[in-house]
Queue: 2 jobs
Job 1
Amino acid sequence: MYDKWCYITDSRTTCDKLKEGEKGMQLNKLKAKIVEKGMNVEALADAIGIDRSSLYRKLNNFEKITIGEAMKMKSALDMTDAEASDIFLS
């Protein structure tokens, strides 16, 4: 089975297919980025407009992060395109 992962840079949307069992995101890198930027889960959840419990589920891989949420996280955490690609597509 294949899942389709998409990410948006400043000017385009790119979609990649991942084989079953491949990891679509680097959750530890995302969690580290939250800490690096001096934020916590509650602050990031507020910044991207979702409930704190929803973000916890997403950070613990119980729910998928949507493209829109990934874009908002990229902005809230002041990530470069390369950082966002590394976190959300590795």
Job 2
Amino acid sequence: MNKPASTLGSWRVDVILEDQGLVKIDAAGQITIIAHAYCYEHEDHGCGQEAIANGHLIAAAPDLYEALAHCLMTLIEWESYEEGPCGEDHQIAVKKATDALSKASPNKL
């Protein structure tokens, strides 16, 4: 399975203005800004924590991609060891993992 063409390395969150919901996601050790996460004030909660949570989710994307790709390869390998077709839950897990990886890195699978 090919790696995505995204910025390599660990991504990290840099909280710029917590109370205003501005977060920068960058590649550790590089002069590369991956994204900014913003949040506009909601009536039911402050936006700072939401922007930070979104930033951490974005920063985890490369690790999540790698972990999911590893899980998918393991599931596919298990199919070859099974006698007969795998169960429906197994097939659903393979499809969801394949779909998610394709969404993250189109034309790479």
